[in-house]
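Input for the complex:
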Amino acid sequence: MNWFTAFLKSSIGRKVVMGLTGIFLIVFLVVHCGVNACIFVNDNGETFNKAAHFMGSNFFIRVAEIGLFAGILLHIVQGLLLWADKSKRRPVGYNKTAGSVTSTWYSRSMGLLGTLILLFLILHLKHFWVPSRITGLGEVMYEQEKVLNLYSEMKRVFSELWVVVVYVLGVISLGYHLMHGFQSAFQSLGWNHPKYTPLIKSLGFGFSILVPLIFAAMPLLMYLEIIN
Amino acid sequence: MIMSGDMKLTLKVWRQKNSSAKGAFETYQVDGISKDMSFLEMFDVLNERLISEGKEPIAFDHDCREGICGMCSMYINGRAHGPWKGTTTCQLHMRAFNDGDTIVVEPWRSVAFPVVKDLVVNRSAFDRIIQAGGYISVNTGNAVDANSILIDKPDADKAFAAAACIGCGACVAACPNASAMLFTSAKVSHLALLPQGDPERKTRVNNMVRQMDIEGFGMCSNTGACEAECPKEISLENIARMNREYVSSVFAG
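Predicted:
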């Protein structure tokens, strides 16, 4: 397996790992966003609680959850290593830099944006993942089946203004991170083609606006009691 | 014979005695600069003056002065080869600037390109990447007829566009991570696209990427600054191609 560790340590191997885990996390975002969007049905959380119950009790999804944590960890560790590596490659910096003339600010700030997302993620896991998987939550009955009442937990968490503000800032960071990350992942895996790259770029742009917008709407609409 | 004009400029230039000395910026006032001079001719005017004043002239790399050799390498106002797109420093002309401007001139900054003196950096790391695989092995003998191997025109065009890389190092200088992926990928691509390069394509990409990493170039995060600053407008598609070539050489080689 010498060849494999050499690959993982190489500059290209590292970006392949970054791209693969990135695409995996994008797929996760689609699922997460889809399940949570059930709150927009506005049926006092019944649809959402049932969907969340399915996600929490399905064997395959629980296995995928382990993969998800591994993927996030790999993405974070690689990203932080990359960030730390930068200053070593250019010990004497420039007096003047091109700024946004030659590259976008967010493509140059993936480490910073990623760190902001990580800080948000820690708070987010504490709010929802820890009580639903470890410390326990209140339950609700639907058709003789007891399920965790995540919906009421969401309402409780999102009744505080500072939490809503942090969540909105968190998803804005996510949006900019995706704005570069989405198309960058495809480039890293070598998927650059004159026919398809413009499509990937447009898709990535749309995705990085739409998904954070849907996520931001959840705490906002709950705080404003539009979803009730 | 140097033309003269009426532009007055303030130059902030990086001066460094040798690779181990600590460098610093020095400020120079230059006047009598014509808009038709190239950026290097403007430096010639300044150096003539420094020599006549008994001072050390500013060391900078240059050779052909027609944009094809890849020797000139100045980081001008935060831009590799200055503000013009698809242009080397020698082809940058003073009409890109205005009378009274302050221009900051720095050497390429990368741990793999140590400063030799002032604005001159050592780019031998690129030569070693080429030596690691940027060639094809052929038997000696009579030259083969050019039409004996047929090449698809689109492939020939792509290979030619990649081969346009002059190895100046602007990609490394412009990259926020000081990565050499655009250079290496151009060299990998122009041979990988041609039948002559096909037999060695797997060992080539492997050896060249390994050498690139050994030299201390940074990681690539796809910001695209290299492509934007490349005087030969080498495309990022080449980096994607190198990624594919490398992955297939590792997993299917």
